[in-house]
Amino acid sequence: MVKHHTKFIFVTGGVISSLGKGIAAASIGALLESRGLQVTILKLDPYLNVDPGTMNPFQHGEVFVTSDGTETDLDLGHYERYLNKDLGKVNSVTAGQIYQSVLDKERAGDYLGNTVQVIPHVTDQIKAAIYAAAAGYDVLICEVGGTVGDIESLPFLETIRQMRGDEGYKNTVFIHASYVPILDEIGEIKTKPTQHSVKELLGIGIQPDVLLLRAGRKIPSDIKKKIALFCNVPEKQVVSCPNLETVYEVPLLLREEGIDDILVEHLNIWARAPNLSPWKHIVNEIKNPQTLLSIAVVGKYTSLAESYKSIHEALVHAGIENHAQAKIVYIDADDIEAKGAAKMLKHADAILVPGGFGQRGINGKIAAVKYAREHKVPFLGICLGLQIAVIEFARNVAKLNEATSQEFDEHADTQVIHIMEDQKRIHKKGGTMRLGNYETIIQPHTLAHKIYQHDQIVERHRHRFEVNNSYRDILALAGLVFSGLSPDKDLVEIVEISNHPFFIACQSHPEFQSRPLKPHPLFVGFIAAAIDKKNASV
Q1: pLDDT in tens, 150-181
Q2: Could you give the 3-state DSSP secondary structure of residue 200?
Q3: Which of 209, 377, 378, 514 is the most buried (most CB within 10 A)?
Q4: pTM over 0.90
C-alpha cells in the first residue's frame, strides 16, 4: 500500500453515544490549523446504509450535503464550520460503502478467487479510504463513529489498530473520548465507565494516547490522576472537556488543556504558536450580545434539534455578525395548524421555514408563511420553505385556491410545484436528488441582489421538486418576484415579494455554507431584518 507523509489522529468514543466527538475532532483540527498545519478530517460511520440520505431525521439528525453533492452525516458540517473549508466525498465513508466496494470487487474477480474476509479485504478497503482522504495534508483527523463495544465498529477499530503498525508510533495518535458521569445526589465523579471503555479498547489492541473526558463540569486533577493510573495514560494527556456555554469555545478550552502541544510533540511536528484571536472574538460576541432575538423555526422534526443543526448554527453565525443572540424557538407545524399561527408566532422577531419532505405539517407551514407575509414579519424560506411560500402566495394572493405541490397531491389540477423533469424517471431514493453546487443568476434591483452583492452565486442543493414554470407568469403578475434563476432560466432558485421589509425564499440550502468565521449573507440579512423589526416595535 502506498505510504504518505501525513500524520494520523484517530478519535474514538466510549460509554455513550452523542459525546460530541465530531465537535472535539473539528476543534482539534481548528487548533492545529491555527498553528499553520494543513489539516483535513474523515468520518468513518459504522452503519450499513450507503449514506444517510434516506435515513429518518429523528434517528440521525440532519443530512449534510457537501459541495460535490455527497450526502453525509451532520459531523461533516462541524468539520467544515471549524476548518472553514469545503470537504467532499472522500471525507465521509460508511460501512455500507466499504462493503459495497468489497463485494463489487469480488464480483469483478479482483480477488482472484481468494476467500473474501473482513481481514484483510474489508480492513484494506478502509485503509484505502483513509489514505485517499489524507493525500496532500500534514494531518488527517479520523473520527470513528459509534461507541467502542458496538459490533459494527469492529472492522474500523481493527483498521486503525493496524495503521499504528503500518505508520509507526510517531505518526499516529489515538484519542479516546469518554463520558464521566457525576452523580447528582452526592456530586461524586465516577471513573469506572471510562476504565471499562479503555479496557474494551485494549481488548481490541488499541492503547489510547490521549483521553478526552466529557462531563457536566471540569474534571479535577485528582480524578485525572486516578484515571491516568488505571488507564495507563500519562496524567498530562488526560484532558477535561466539560459542557460549555457555546461549542465554539471548545478550541479555546482544548488549548488551555494543552492538547495541541501534546499532539505536535507526540507526532514530532514543528508548528508555530496558535493564533486563536478569531475564536476569542466569536466567543465574546456570543456571550455578550447587544440584542436578543426570538427566531421561530417552523418544521416537522422539531422534537430533535439536530434535524436542523446547520440552520441553527447559521443563525448563530449571523447573530455574531450582527452583535445579536438568536434564541431559536422550534415550533411544530402541526401545533400551528391546531392552535393558530397568531397564537404560536406572536412573539417571533422573524420566521424561518426550513426544508423537509412529505405532507405532514404542510398546512401549519402555509399558515406560518401567511402570518409572516401579512404581519410584515421577516421571513426566510429554505428548500421546501420556498415551495411552501409559493403555494401560500398562489392561494392567497394570486387566487389559485387549489394550488399545491405534486409531492402532496399527485392528481391535483393546480400543481404550482412539480417534480423536476430529470427526476421523473428516477425510482431509487438514495443519492438521486439534485445534489451539491449549482449556479444561480441574481436579478438586479432585488432583495437577493442587495443581500449577495453579486450577479451570480453558487449554492448547495438537495431537492426533487421545483416551481412549475406554467404558473410563473400568473404568479409574477400577482407580485411574486423571481429574483434568482438557473443559468438557463429554467429553474426558479429564489423568490421574494417587494412590499415587505424582508420576505425571501431559496430552493437551495445556504445553511450548509455558513461558517462562524464567514456567516452566510442570506442569514446575516435575515437577522438584521429581525433586529430592525424588534427595534421598531420598542
Answers
A1: 999 999 999 999 999 999 999 999 999 999 99
A2: helix
A3: 378
A4: yes
Q: For residue 177, what is its C-alpha cell?
A: 473520548
Residue in 80, 383, 459, 500 annotated catalytic: 383
Identity of residue 185 = E
Annotated catalytic residue 200: no
Q: Which three cell numbers stand for residue 92?
A: 465521509
For β-strands 480-485 and 492-497, DSSP reports them as antiparallel
Look-up of cell digits 434563476: 485
Cell numbers linked to 468: 412549475
Among the listed residues 231, 407, 511, 520, the single catalytic one is 511
| Rg of the chain in Å (alpha carbons) | 25
How many CB atoms are closer than 10 A to CB 170?
11
424-444 tens-digit pLDDT: 565 555 556 778 999 999 999
Collapsed DSSP state (helix, strand, coil) of residue 485: strand
Q: Is 509 a catalytic residue?
A: yes
- Look up residue 63 and give its three cell numbers: 443530512
Identify any residues that bridge with 417 across adjacent strands, giving them in sequence order.
405, 467
DSSP-derived pairing of the beta strands 480-485 and 434-442: antiparallel
Cα 379 to the chain's mean position, in Å?
22
Other beta carbons within 10 angstroms of residue 216's beta carbon come to 12
Put residue 486 in one of left, alpha, beta given phi > 0 → left and psi -120 to 50 → alpha: beta
Q: What are phi and psi of 259, to 5 degrees?
A: -65, -35
Residue that the C-alpha cell 392528481 belongs to: 411
d(CA 382, CA 496): 12
- Could you tell me the three cell numbers for 359? 405532507
